[in-house]
Amino acid sequence: MFLDVNLEPVPDRPALVMKGARSWVCVADLHLGIEVQLRRAGFNIPSQAPKMLADIEELATRGENLLILGDVKHRIPSVSYREDREIPPFLDRLLKHFAEVTIVAGNHDGGLSTVLPQAIRPIAGHGARLDDIGVCHGHVWPSKDAMSGSTLVMGHIHPSVLLRDSLGSKSNEKCWVRGKFKKAMVLRRYGHCPNELVVVPAFNPLLTGTPINAGTGARLGPIFRNGLVDEKGLAIYLLDGTNLGRIAAVRGAANAF
Question: Among 57, 74, 95, 255, fewest CB within 10 Å belongs to which?
Fold first, then answer.
């Protein structure tokens, strides 16, 4: 599915296994506490934290360490009362299943450091390199260290794809996005260009995502907004591994909505 043999998507899960000197389970965009915002909008939805916690605990058999690519919490800019009560025990449980838990700061993670268990390893939002793989959240420019890997893995975009079946039913499905950079532009800024870009879907089940095949697609974050990614060459995969082809092929499906 991906060019980098050290990356393996988990079937039917928005999670990635990264294999290097150590193995990592990688998830992104938990948005703990989003139910509070939805409740204010009139939707009475129970907390998704127990389900996400159980799902991540199941993934512990696939990697010794856990990497969360940002937006652990939802409220901006501070930590809400609900998040203050929910996040520490959530992360403490994960520390019992993984040798190391590393969190890359996302744009929703302001104030998160005040509730992080001491054993959690924090990384700034511009990211870093883990073995030969660069990781970042995606809302700010990646660091030179993150861009020095063979692949850049990021979250933030919550990628999804709009689909319609033969009966006209519409669905918005989470998806993986894989592509390449415009090498000359990246080299001018960083001096090194990763071979591949992988965008991880949002882990929170309430966040279906931003349809990347609608209009101009999801141009969130500086590397997309500034044209460093070859958008026409982006490949789209559903969580079950179905290859939908290049973005041009799936944009036609969205235009039919």
Answer: 255
